[in-house]
Amino acid sequence: MAKSTLHISKGVEDAPSINPKLKAHPFARRSPEELALKLAMGDLSALAQGITLVESQAPTDLSDASELLNLLMSKSGNAIRIGVSGVPGVGKSTFLESYGIYLLEKDPKAKVAILAVDPSSAKHQGAILGDKTRMVELGKHPRAFIRPTAAGGALGGVARATKEAMILCEAAGFNHIFVETVGVGQSETMVSQLADCFLFLAMPGTGDELQGIKKGIMEMADLVAMNKSEGEYRTAAERGALEVKRALQLVTRSQEEWIPSVSLISGLFCEGFEVLEADLERYFRHAKIKGTFEQKRNEQNQFWFERSIYEGIQSLFASDINWISLKSALNQQVLSREVSPFEASRQLLDSLKGKI
Hints:
There is one protein chain. By secondary structure, the chain is an alpha/beta fold. The protein has three domains: 12-74, Single alpha-helices involved in coiled-coils or other helix-helix interfaces; 77-290, P-loop containing nucleotide triphosphate hydrolases (Rossmann fold), CATH 3.40.50; 298-350, Helix Hairpins (Orthogonal Bundle), CATH 1.10.287. The protein is 46% helix and 11% strand. Strands 3-2-4-1-5-6-7 form a seven-stranded parallel sheet, with helices on both faces. Helix 1 (32-40) packs across helix 2 (44-55). It is globular. The relative contact order is 0.10.
């Protein structure tokens, strides 16, 4: 497919005229060019359609999704990207709704997008959509966008197309993007390949700090916020924050010369947000001065490039009937212990020589 040369305007006043037939219905299927144009003007229905397109695995959608991303790539990269993770029940959704509203009320130019990776339904693999139903007030705001996406078995606690969805949100003008993961665990660390800052939420009195270190999460945390620190839980929260600070001394990334700060917040009562915001600003200022901000984004792009190659090769092989047949036969030989797994894989790889 020839690369499109469509110019994406920066505002409604600069937009070229659009064929009236293409505006018949806001959810009618649009071409990548029209989707890109409408999305760049901040059209939320176009943004929703665009994310649906990049999430799709239908063969007819893959080329359109690729073209859409190419058209909008130059419009992305202007937001701050914050990954939010924490144990189930820590209050991630409550915090994100409260903090999102706080940002929108404070800054009339702020636009907040939340990409919430929901657990998948075991029956149909779709998102359970719990996060969107919990962020009712934020969802009503004209400068907010919430997109629940089914994790569907993707590693890292983020959905397969979360990276692409982030690009589209940035192209649509959202300057604060939060990626909320399904929970905490060894596989959840993929969020660090998406975000500029990784915010780990903990809560008092659970011992999650030490558990987080064992799981490798705290090594990646740029900031820690002790949620549910209001009222009678304040003393326990202060004690928990002290334990976290001590633990962080053991896992500080010395090459970045950064020690993650620990703040006390309450998503339910909107407390501690000024301190958290100051910590975020301090982190981003430090990262930009040290050059780690741009370095991290470059490393993330390299990661997704390599991962896309790997997934593309897998997809190519999965559509080759002969390869599938040989793999199945070798798998049976492995199960019957006729050959070792290593010999079987060698034979399978040898069969690919000359095909790529």
